[in-house]
## 1
Amino acid sequence: MADVLEQPPARAESPNANSKLKVIDCDIHPSLKTRADLHPFLSKRWQQHLQTYGGHLRTPFTSTTPYPRSSPLLARRDAWPPNGGPPGSDLAFMRRQHLDPINVEFGILQVLDLLVVSQQNQEFGAALQRAINEWQIECWSKPEPRLKASIVVGQDNTEAAVAEIERCATTGKYVQVNVSPRANEPLGRRRYWPLYAVTEAANLPLGIHVGGYGGHAPTGSGWPSYYNEEHHSNAHSVAAQLSSLVLEGVPERFPKLKFVFIEGGFGWAPALTWRLDKHWQRFRDEVPHVRRPPSEYVRERFWFTTQPIEEPENSGHLRDVLEWIGIDRLLFSSDYPHWDYDDARFAFKTPLTEAERAKIFNANARALYRLG
Amino acid sequence: MRVAILVASRAALRETSRADWAMPTMRVDCDIHPGLEGTRTTLLPYLDEHWQEQVISRGIDGLDLMSYPPSMPLCCRPDWRPKDGKPGSNFELLKAQALDAFDTSHAICNVLYGAQAVFDPYMAAAFCRAINDWIATEWLAREPRLRASIVVPMQAPDLAVDEIRRLAGDHRFVAVLVLVQGEFLLGRRHFWPVYAAAQQHKLPIAIHSGSQYRMAPSSIGWPSYRLEYYIAEAQAHQAQLLSLILEGVFAKFPDLKVVMMESGISWLPAFMWRANKTWKGVRVEVPWVDRPPADIMRDHVRLTTQPFDGPPRQRDLEQLLEQIGSDRMFLFSSDYPHWQFDGDCPIPAGFPASLVARMCVDNPLETFPRLQASP
């Protein structure tokens, strides 16, 4: 976005700037330099498969997104590392451009490369998810302990996903389990419950980052024409997952499990909970397992990352939404290095108290992810 | 302008209680649902010989939409459920319960029987035609307070245009009715002839909750519950609005209005913000959209007020109305016989009196200009 390019370098006098506040950034996208980066973590067979066939995804093109994005690789135009490779692939440059100037104390990694969560060849997907999870530790968390890895799993191969969560969780090196909001079925459906059992047992939050190819059209009336619409459908996907999880009774069944919606916005959430509460009254006999008003589960168990930040026409209205959703349920995220990046210093166009900033930019994530 | 409206509504909220609202003498209920018993029982006299024969020999019946099984609680308030027949199917009951009880001066009938969801385009066209003739003969002709939306076969836009043209001379038809979930997003070019005809005849497009059940309601797949599906209809409405705006329908048809019916309302502000923000970021895709989508919504989009899904606290409701920033977008509706509220007041609690006046009279008259013509 042009705004990103026009922003001045870090300055202490910006409205929300506070040089003392350390930021926990809950959405950072690291990238492979090339697919060969995964070779150390893949068997010969799968190395060859990756090279020969590549991914098999429910999307028309092998090497780009179905809707052309607003910039190459959906990245900030200034995020291409000077030494080559795609945005997000050079740790030294990531430190220099993002981690250090924004004063990132911890960053939570969200890997989108190869969309391992959406691979149709499930055996290949299982090999890829394991490789990606090992690559995160070896190439990112080890050299840069501020960066924390998420266990990326494709939920449709539930058995492999459960095994991978258990394998990774025992290492103690991961802070979250990541699934896609777009898969064969909504996340609340019973076929996915074994994942929640192991995630809850590992005491990890379940992160749901937008994206993926689940085979369903982005809207209830089919495929839109524009990236603009596809982008908006990201918010719809996580909102629908909130309904699914709550109405299928997942929070009831897994009382310690915590849910994090990542990069889906949050402005929609209060209205959705009002809507759920209203109609739940009328349909209670259809969902007797939902014993309390849906809003109560959401208030207790769901977190939301802040990017892309809501931008009401009147910035004061952002304040209404923050209060509706709860200051303690918001987790700052930048989405580095993507085009719609939020800069921690400028993203919130409504005043926050020091205590509120401390929560949104640090304390909420520190507690949720149990960061030291 | 928006600020002024807001200040006025806030003042009104402080001074007005529900008890002392003076109801406008004219009061337009923009969404009621007469019930249609079935293809064989009801539509047969309105079908030509070919389709009569088809309906009988093939047993083509039972087209109640999967979105609205008549027996589920939402579909009929318990005290409005007739002893026999489907919700809303009894003429005398509808008159007493939906018109007399709410001092309604005009009510717009939106028939939700499934002609709009059949796959055969010619069958769809025949059934839509029969529904429109049935509503004109057995409802509009018997009760001067009733108006109706033209049910059209969007499966074949050229046949939809034919149906609009056929009925355009009858001013008791005041809108064109489509379902919110169909095979294609409504902004797509192949629907534009429908909008050209609608604009020409001063008919807004009423986009009503309900689905052809072709696709899952969102990218996450098919939900388990009717409740989940009904919740998701709000997103279906949003997707259609985005499509209409971004494909340039309102640039091409500047006098066209769309009415979101039974869509809920509370999603609107956050949707406006997101639509504006994304448009700012990637407007290069849609150069014909030359102003923020929220401004286009305030000019072209209207919403019926039941079911009202706003916040329970008065202060939050005031904030929500302030965020929407327009007193022209709301249209009074009871959604009869659907069970969206109890008691005798279909106006959502806490709405300021100035807004109530607008949504009962001015806004419907502006949105449905044919209400002002003599039938």
Note: The first helix of chain A runs from residue 2 to 6.
## 2
Amino acid sequence: MDIPYTIEARPDTGLYNAKLGIWLFLASEVMLFGGLFSAYVLLRVGAPEGFWPHGWLSVTLGTVNTLLLALSAITTLLAWVACKVGEFRKFKFFHACTLLLALSFLCVKSYEYHDKWIHYEIHLKDGRIADGHLVEQNDQEVVLDGRIIDGNQEQLLYDLRAQKNIPDNEVRLERDNILKMENYGPRHNTFTAIYFTMTGLHALHIMGGCVVIGYLWGPGSRMWKTDRQRFTNRIEVSGLFWHFVDLVWIFLFPVLYLT
Amino acid sequence: MSESSATDLKSSVRRCGLVFLAVACTTAMMISASFSHIGGWPVKVAAILAVAVVNAFLVAGFLMHLLTEKKMIFTVLLFTVIFFAGLLGLTLWAMQDFPVGTTH
């Protein structure tokens, strides 16, 4: 049995079914990310004055990721155009570029996550706070590349952008003096919680997109020989999803990295 | 490949190049607005988000072809905008409705 309207447009909607389907799906995705952006606004506005992080994330890496994703959105569109004009080899090239750019994005994101994972805030028994990246640790001591501040200066840890010229030093801490040791993982504070939730969900979308793009580039591309128009429509639909993922990042980048 | 399809591909590459350049420029504008010392925090955030909206328009309008889409898709998006506005509206409304003593 043939599935109707996979190629030709339905008379009542003016669209082939998959295209209407992907737009309905994207509408639901807007609500999903919209809920998280609302949560971010609520947390951001509810934070006490001076206690919302600035400069915790690398603007350079965020910019690189923005450009990588923008470029991948371009190559996925060009892959679709290549299909439209019957250039299968160019389609393969552009779709491979999309896949490589997406994987590069994920590599940069992993590096950023790792950076947060080895970044520790350590409260000492004498009231001081040590903050920095973990160099090594054993049963006797913990070594950080960072600094120590007084407990009443905790606010200094939040606005790193204003103090980027303060050099990091090697800080050696005896285990016996440590009261609490916690990395900058999701449970560290509300900022890291919402940061990991939003970017993690976005990264899952990137991974899902990679699976679809990889399939259409590899085994799925056999359809080019049997049903060229339907294959081209599949590329268009997957491209729309990919552009949506780019759109989400366009708002995540300024909201998390720049404001 | 026929001559006309080769031209199609070339013109698409050129158009996409321009869109990418525009996206790179808007990204640079957002970053410079973020590091500038003009205006207070609300002005800065408003400026950055305004540029982000322009950036999103470039992607949605040109790469997703929203500028030339069918009426049905705009109907779907209209409902999405209404529900999204409701979602943000409820959040903003809730911010005025905290019980006394539960906020900083």
Note: The mean pLDDT of chain B is 86.
